[in-house]
Amino acid sequence: MNSSKPSSINNLLDQFNLCRQLRFNGNLDVQDTDGNTWIFYYRLGRIVWATGGVHPVRRFYRKITQHCPQINLRTLNFGDSVAQSNSWDYHILTLLHQRQKLKPEQVNAVVESTITELLFDIVQRSVFSPLSSDHNQDEILDVPLTLSSSDSFLQQAQKDWEKWQQAKLTKISPNLAPKLIPSEKLQAQLNEQVYQNFVQLLTGKSTLRDLELKIKQNPLKLTRSLLPYIQKGMVKLVKLPDLPLPIKQQRIASSQTETKTREEFPLIACIDDSPQISEMLGSMLTPHNYKFIGIQDSVQAIPLLIEQKPSLIFLDLVMPVANGYEICAQLRRMSLFAKIPIIIVTGSDGLVDRMRAKMVGATGFMSKPLEPQKVMALVRKYVPISQKQTSR
Fold this sequence. Notes:
- By secondary structure, the protein is an alpha/beta fold.
- The chain has helices at 9-21, 56-67, 80-83, 88-98, 104-128, 150-166, 184-189, 192-201, 208-215, 219-231, 256-263, 275-285, 298-308, 324-332, 351-359, 372-382, 387-390; strands spanning 5-7, 26-32, 37-43, 46-52, 131-136, 177-180, 235-238, 267-271, 291-295, 312-316, 342-346, 364-367.
- A 5-stranded antiparallel beta sheet has the order 1-5-2-3-4, with helices on one face. The chain has a 5-stranded parallel beta sheet with strand order 9-8-10-11-12, sandwiched between helices. It has a two-stranded antiparallel ribbon with strand order 6-7.
């Protein structure tokens, strides 16, 4: 079964239906003229997984953060063989499921939302670029985590696209990143709090979809609210590169001995709504035999800290819903964290902030941007690693 030909969206829907009717095992590859490729994996005519598109790695990070907040991909290494596969993201999901780090409902949520998102992107791209499709059996996923009907996904993607069109957002991809163009005119139009929120959020470093996790607002509503400013040139939409694959120094333990050894290394936690800050800290710490967990959702922070029991906590001061002062005060009321070092991290280095941080029980205070030498000096001060651990 092999075909490659230009397709309208209706022809492409026929290809999905054909896969279902023939109980196809293999891949349906969809391409546009800009070089984007989406891959849909089939088992017995039902979609098992989908990947590719503009930001496959960024999307996978986002889905895991959204549906599996207890998992920090940046601290795990899944081996070079995973990275070499087109379906690397599915293999990671499978490994996490096999090690009982994910509940079945979490796996289903990641799979279903990923497939629906890719179908939406394909429908949108079909408006601007001819599509071609190709059936092949280059890679068949032998261990399907779910067997999902393509009909329900297609229906949901089409509904989402219709709403996107009705909001007059046809030409705007949710994979673009909004960047504020500061101006006195814009500042005069908005109250100070709204303007500061714009400054903090619209940095051009997070896509419209990424921002959903930060402000708990779906991309449709967010983009519709930004449309007047985009049309006036006050907010610019920019393209972002994808993130690197989640292949880091630390490995998932393959034996009980390795698990025990890894657990002896101190765990450092970072609570910050910026994925970039967590990634930066993780890259500083893991080469020095520290384990690391990044938590972007302040609401989930305390339950995850109780579960993970870190030896030191970096805590961002300015976050939506719950700020650093509130979280620090709550932690200090718990015996488990009464003596754990807590370092407040902020872009503001004022005397009032330092005094207030001390009042809620913070151990120290660190200004952004983070400097590796200062970070490591502080970590070694409060959580030293023995020579025996370092030599492992």
